[in-house]
Design brief:
36% of the residues are buried. Helix 4 packs across helix 6. The chain has a ten-stranded mixed β-sheet with strand order 1-6-5-3-2-7-4-8-11-12. Strand 17 and strand 18 form a beta hairpin. Among the domains are: 120 residues, no CATH class; 90 residues, no CATH class; 52 residues, no CATH class. The chain has 21 helices and 26 strands. The chain has 679 residues and is of the alpha+beta class. The termini are far apart.
């Protein structure tokens, strides 16, 4: 068969249904690579079984290597086999050489070849289907690259550890088998059979560039079967997961770095792992060539993304792509979760201020969801010029910003920068910290400052057994953190819970005070004169900057933590005396009285439901629902929180959400809201 020149793509027929499949022809390692290409319908039950390759493309500037592809073309009315050539990057050619069988063809799908990368229409269509393509593959083969001096020991470490580990808690935790090598590591690392070389080899394996590539998350999260290859060596994906979860929870960071673990851990699904803000945050840390892929690479794996029904469109700019996704998210979910990623300081000029640039990794503190919105839901109005109008309330104006920014927390086995962080906190201390008896948001200024530093994490609100009580937080602060305390006491066991919260993430923030006396902290570039607002649907307050070019218009600066308004006080007022707001096990907010353990969904600050609405606790999907109302009595009697839903007796509609908490319901209930035009 004569070589006919550079490979020319034939249009997929039918578009959106057919895929290209490659047959890797047999040969020896040193032989040139020969492939044949065919078109088959993805959904056809009689389609040829195929494998998918998951790999890194590598630098576009690297040397390209030649391979040969045969395909059937119509020539003078007859179908003939034509041999053409294509240049691919080194890593792909190496993978094909190692994966090629000596005497048997292998059918495989490879994105760089099976998608016409120059045809943007086809590329958008095929990118939207990649989740299906990987899901329907017989197996996904992960290509990490050729073996090196660490490979053999790394794979041996994975095999030995995984043999003694069972995953628990929906794959978020693990237990070790008695007598296993994993148990020996857990009990006493130094006496186990694992040497420092084992951990060095393991680390070198998971530090390979493949683990940081953006698209691999879709490729492995949707696969039905996965095999990891390194040269000719291989290991089952399930064994790596067991080893990773074990190392995450049971092995000191002195042996395996936290960043390596977090990158690898994000490849395995577990409850809560697909929250969109965290998905986009993790994605921003990965390797990619096109920032629009931060959206498109998550379309098949994020439940939130699936609900938005976004179609890849590479004719849009990154700013247009991110705005489209952000507005669809707001329209569908009625909340402003994504606003927590806004950062005016780093925003490109082509972006609207309310559209986060997801390509810029964000401080972890931006991602914490609290209850400033009091469960309210937002709706927006499009305004000419690409602007939007939202509802909410102005809380106060910033009058003073600290010149000291808290450093990012750094921890290793031998040292940390906790004392530097404490020095920053001491520089933040208001002059009247120890003399002020009242704070605008309730309690004393001292307690407000103590809670601000820990982002409000305490046992009374979050129930975590590792968390300090408010009293323990106060004692710890006065002993070791306050400028009148002794920073050398930070390692005292009874102060560990509160001090640990000061080092619990990688946030870097500045402290500010408002005109009326609120105190807050923000990871953004807040300034004097900025406005602190609580927008409906925003779980944390947002800092806004008045726009100079039009009245009542603002630019979104970013999120903040404002002590005294984090539990809905700016919208619904303070909780009645004796009531507490808590986070439930399912991460929803609920309420209880101080003298009772019984928790309820009903916010004691809300007014009664309109007469034509009913609250129910029976099964929403039951064909006989709603019931006669007895479900509430059963719910109260059982003393346990079960999902609540609402029934409109006039329209017969069933709602998951409280009808009092959207814009119309709030205004009907007498709540005065302000309009904000965001530019």
């Amino acid at each position: 068969m004569a070589e006919e020149g550079l490979f020319v793509y034939q249009v997929l027929d039918p578009p959106g249904h057919a895929i290209r499949l490659l047959t890797l022809l047999p040969g020896e390692f040193s032989d040139d690579i020969y492939l044949s290409i065919t078109h088959e319908e993805l959904e056809d039950e009689n389609r040829t079984p195929y494998d998918c390759l998951s790999y890194i493309w590598g630098d576009a500037a690297q040397a390209h290597q030649k391979l040969y592809i045969s395909q059937k073309l119509a020539v003078d009315g007859a179908e003939v086999d034509v041999l053409q050539f294509l240049y691919v990057r080194n890593n792909l050619l190496a993978a094909l050489k190692y994966l090629r069988l000596p005497d048997t063809p292998r059918v495989i799908w490879i994105d760089a070849i099976c998608i016409d990368q120059q045809n943007l229409t086809e590329k958008g269509t095929e990118v939207a289907r990649m989740g299906q393509i990987y899901n329907k593959a017989a197996q996904v083969i992960i290509w990490l690259g050729p073996e090196d001096e660490y490979t053999s020991m790394a794979l041996d470490t994975i095999e030995r550890l995984s043999a003694g580990v069972e995953l628990t808690w929906d794959h978020r935790g693990c237990v070790v088998k008695p007598g296993s090598e994993a148990e020996a590591v857990q009990k006493h690392m130094e006496k186990s059979k694992f040497t420092p070389e084992n951990w060095t080899s393991f680390s070198r394996l998971i530090q390979r560039p493949w683990f940081r590539r953006l698209w691999i998350r879709q490729e492995v999260l949707l696969a039905s079967k996965i095999l990891m290859r390194c040269g000719y060596a291989e290991v089952a994906w399930e064994k790596l997961e067991k080893a990773i979860v074990f190392v995450e929870h049971r092995v000191s960071r002195a042996y395996v770095g936290v960043d390596d673990i977090l990158f690898c851990r994000s490849l395995f699904p577990y409850v809560g792992s697909d929250i969109l803000t965290y998905t986009l945050h993790r994605s921003s840390l990965c390797g990619y060539f096109d920032s629009r892929d931060l959206i498109y690479a998550n379309l098949s794996t994020s439940s939130a993304m699936k609900a938005l029904q976004i179609k890849p469109d590479y004719s849009l700019t990154a700013a247009e792509t991110f705005k489209d996704m952000s507005c669809k998210y707001l329209q569908h979910f009625k909340n402003l979760d994504l606003f927590r990623s806004c950062d005016l300081q780093t925003l490109p000029a082509s972006f609207k201020s309310f559209v986060p640039d997801f390509a810029v990794p964000k401080s972890e503190s931006r991602l914490f969801s609290v209850y400033a919105h009091a469960g309210t839901r937002q709706s927006y109005v499009d305004i000419e010029g690409g602007l939007i109008e939202l509802k909410g309330r102005i809380v106060d104006k910033i009058r003073k910003v600290s010149s000291s920014r808290k450093p990012i927390a750094i921890r290793t086995l031998s040292s940390d920068n906790l004392k530097d962080i404490i020095e920053t906190y001491r520089a933040w201390e208001p002059a009247n910290l120890m003399t002020s008896t009242t704070y605008l948001g309730g309690g004393t200024l001292l307690d407000a400052f103590i809670m601000l530093l820990s982002n409000g994490f305490c046992k009374e609100t979050y129930h975590g057994s590792h968390l300090p009580t408010i009293q323990e937080s106060r004692e710890s602060f006065l002993a070791a953190v306050w400028s009148g305390g002794d920073a050398n006491l930070i390692n005292t066991p009874r102060y560990k819970a509160y001090i640990g919260e000061l080092m619990s993430d990688r946030r870097s923030e500045v402290f500010f005070q408002t005109v009326e006396g609120y105190i807050g902290a923000s990871p953004t570039d807040v300034r004097e004169g900025d406005i602190v607002s609580v927008l409906l649907g925003a779980s944390v307050p947002m800092v806004l900057r008045p726009a100079d070019d039009r009245p009542h218009a603002y630019r979104v600066v970013g999120p903040c933590f404002l002590q005294g308004v984090m539990l809905g006080e700016a919208l619904l007022g303070p909780l009645p005396e004796g009531w507490l707001c808590n986070i439930h096990d399912n991460r929803k907010w609920c309420f209880r009285r101080e003298d009772s353990d019984r928790r309820v969904w009903e916010d004691p600050r809300l007014w009664p439901l309109p007469a034509h609405w009913q609250a129910h606790f029976c099964d929403l999907d039951d064909e006989n629902s709603p019931c006669d109302g007895s479900c509430e009595a059963d719910y109260v009697k059982a003393g346990q929180l079960v999902d609540r839903w609402f029934f409109d007796t006039r329209s017969k509609e069933k709602w998951h959400e409280d009808p009092r908490l959207d814009v119309r319901g709030l205004e009907t209930g007498g709540l005065e809201l302000q309009s904000f035009t965001l530019v």
